[in-house]
Design a protein that fits this description.
Elements: E1 4-13, E2 30-34, E3 37-49, E4 55-62, H1 71-74, E5 81-84, H2 95-98, E6 107-110, H3 127-139, H4 141-152, H5 163-185
């Protein structure tokens, strides 16, 4: 592990149907809007090591919880910097970050919203967009873990009722995803059979 964390969250859908015996949805799942589309389910928040891309922390909440509320739970005490998307803007001003002696020293490298970047003339170098592109090139490692969970292990919809049961399944799936990432990173690695 290399002293930095990338934080992000994804929505995992839940069945919104009420055609069950009790005629009710899962009470722990909630609606949220992503882009112009409404989704019903839970959010999975992860902290990924910035150097290796290995997932080290996982939390789960209902779908309507904002990403920034879980960010302090995803950071490690020895982190020197943290990356995040524009959903984490203003994290350094939150009480749980300011009041913690370790977290208050972290260099937060949060992507800005594209609309907030100033326009430059055609013959000028656009340093603002260059810096944002560099941040995104580091931050993309967090998306690899989500790809393994949703595409390789096909966990696009929750299988159980309640956040706790689904969090247990996510812990197992992210452990498997970590093993898969390590195996793919060390293609030439051959274990010694004893």
């Amino acid at each position: 592990m290399h002293g930095g964390t990338i934080v992000d969250a994804t929505i995992i859908n839940a069945p919104s149907s009420t055609k069950k015996k009790d005629k009710k949805r899962d009470p722990e799942m909630h609606q949220t809007k992503k882009g112009n589309e409404w989704k019903f389910g839970m959010k999975c928040h992860i902290g990924v090591d910035a150097g290796t891309g290995i997932v080290h922390t996982i939390t789960a909440t209902s779908g309507n919880v904002h990403d920034i509320f879980e960010a302090s739970k995803l950071l490690r005490e020895d982190d020197e910097f943290a990356y995040g998307d524009s959903g984490y803007i203003g994290i350094e001003k939150r009480e749980e970050i300011k009041n913690n002696e370790h977290f208050s020293k972290i260099d937060f490298r949060i992507n800005r919203r594209p609309k907030s970047l100033p326009r430059v003339s055609d013959n000028a170098i656009d340093w603002e967009r260059y810096i944002e592109k560099r941040k995104s090139s580091v931050r993309c490692k967090v998306e690899h873990a989500f790809k393994y969970i949703k595409d390789t292990f096909n966990f696009r919809k929750v299988r159980y009722r309640g956040i706790a049961k689904n969090l247990n399944k996510l812990n197992v799936l992210f452990a498997c995803a970590n093993l898969l990432m390590v195996k793919r990173a060390n293609k030439d690695f051959k274990p010694i059979m004893g």
